[in-house]
Structure formats: structure tokens, C-alpha cells
């Protein structure tokens, strides 16, 4: 029996099991009848064709019974779907922003995280949108999935009933880094979650390190801090380095300094390092100036 990790897990599994059992039973009946008829009405046993009259009760049965089964599957599915689309009034709202190729989760008190941290036995409503292209948020263990669409908000909800860490990823191809668009849902005891939640509310972002900010905002899905190449340039040792960038279609050489790093965060398409695509989303409306400065200082120290 499958383990239940949220209120949706059992609903979805039961509906699939119900449909599967009916399908297997019907397959067995139809296949058995086909074999019986092949033997009973074979040419060897019936060399001369005969006319077989209809059987009204049988015809009524094979219309009524499948109709009832289909309506039962529809009803069972509709009940589960209705529950999935009706979040409780006390559900904790979390805004989800998808972008190539990371997730950002923003809580009511302004706290942001690159992973979805939620309290045990507390309903959670995800309010989902995309900053660029179509994505699809999928949490397999919870049996929930919803598209992230640019310019509009979609939603889903769940009630986690087991602590642990569960995969969260994009299930709709969204570009080169689609396979790395992976995060986690971390279900925590309520006291642990609210200790984490209120810590940010009191302390703000001033205590965050550059690495924490980069991680929370999904920057390390495209950039590395060990010097290796990825979808975007590696950050280690990049400060003070002479590179070639493409500015309005023209190549030019520059030395990476504080001004360039700050400009790259708010206007990433202004000077794109040669050999990389202009796909980085702007952090202008995402990161406050204090966090941008913290990131720049962190990159400067990555020797």
C-alpha cells in the first residue's frame, strides 16, 4: 500500500486504483469472451454460416453496465478534483515564482526561500506564476501538479501529514536547464517551522550571507561557485577578470568590477559574457539593494 504524504495522495491513488481495477476486470471479461467465441464459432465447428438473432437483455446489459461504470469513475474523480481545487480558508498562502531555471517561494511575512518549507498538518496554498515561459510545478509524493503561466496566477493546495523532504520539480520542458529545475518540499514540525518563519520576520535579511541569498533565489542553478562552467558563467575568480561581452550585438572587452556585477543583476542583458545566452531574469524587482551589495561582496571574495 502506498504511503500517504498529504491529503491528496490517498485521493489520487484511490481513484487511479479504482479505474485500474475496473479496466483490468473489463479487459479480462472481453478477452475471455473473445477466446470462447473463437473456439465456439470456429469454421471447423460451424462450416455453414448461420444467422444469429439479437439478444435484447444482453444488448441492454452491455450498454447500461459500462455507462454506470463510466459515471462512477467520473463521479469519483470529480469528488477528488473538487477537493483538490477548494483550499481551506485557513490555508497558509505561499507565492511561488518560476523562472528559468529555479523556483522562489515567498511567505506572508516577506521571507523568501529556494526550497518550500511548510509546517506539518497545516494546509498550504501555493499561488503560482512564471517570470518567463511556461513551467509546471510537480510534487510527485503529494500527487499534485499545476502549470506556472506568465502573466497570470494559478494555484493548488495540500495538507502535509508526514515530516520529511520531498522532490519538487518542473514537469514541462522549459529550455536548456529544464532538468536542473529541481527543489525540495521540506515538511517540518510546526514549532520548528514557526521558529524559522519568525526568525526572518524579526531579523530581516541583514543577517544573510551572499551564499544564502544566491541559494534562496535559485542563482546557483545556473552559476557555480567552484569555477566550473554551467548555463551561466562561474562566479569563482570572476571579479577582476578580463572578459569579452556582447553589448547591443557588438563585442567588447571589459574588466569585471563592482559596477558590472551590480548591473548584471538588474540589467542582465546589457553586457552578456561571450559564449552565454541572454536568458537571465532581472533581479531588479526581486532583490533589495542591500542584498545585491551582499552578493557582490561575496563574489569578490570567491578567489
List keywords for this structure.
alpha+beta; Helix Hairpins; 303 residues; five-stranded mixed sheet; single chain; Cytochrome Bc1 Complex, Chain D, domain 2
Could you walk me through the main structural features you see in this protein, from its secondary elements to its overall organization?
By secondary structure, the chain is an alpha+beta fold. The protein has three domains: 7-84, Helix Hairpins, CATH 1.10.287; 92-203, Sandwich (Immunoglobulin-like), CATH 2.60.40.420; 210-300, Cytochrome Bc1 Complex, Chain D, domain 2. The protein is 35% helix and 23% strand. Strands 3-2-1-5-8 form a five-stranded mixed sheet, with no helix packed on it. Strand 2 and strand 3 (112-113) form a beta hairpin. The two termini are 52 Å apart. The relative contact order is 0.10.
* Extended strand count: 13
Q: What would CATH call the homologous superfamily of the largest domain?
A: Cupredoxins -  blue copper proteins
* Topology-level CATH name of the largest domain: Immunoglobulin-like
Mean pLDDT across all amino acids: 87
Largest sheet: 5 strands, mixed
Shape: elongated
Could you write a compact summary of the structure shown?
With 303 residues, the protein is of the alpha+beta class.
Topology record:
Elements: H1 7-40, H2 56-84, E1 92-99, E2 102-107, E3 112-113, E4 116-119, E5 124-130, E6 135-139, E7 144-148, E8 154-158, E9 164-170, E10 182-188, H3 190-203, H4 210-216, E11 242-247, E12 250-255, H5 258-266, E13 272-273, H6 289-300
Parallel strand pairs: 1-5, 4-10
Antiparallel strand pairs: 1-2, 2-3, 5-8, 6-7, 6-9, 9-10, 11-12, 11-13
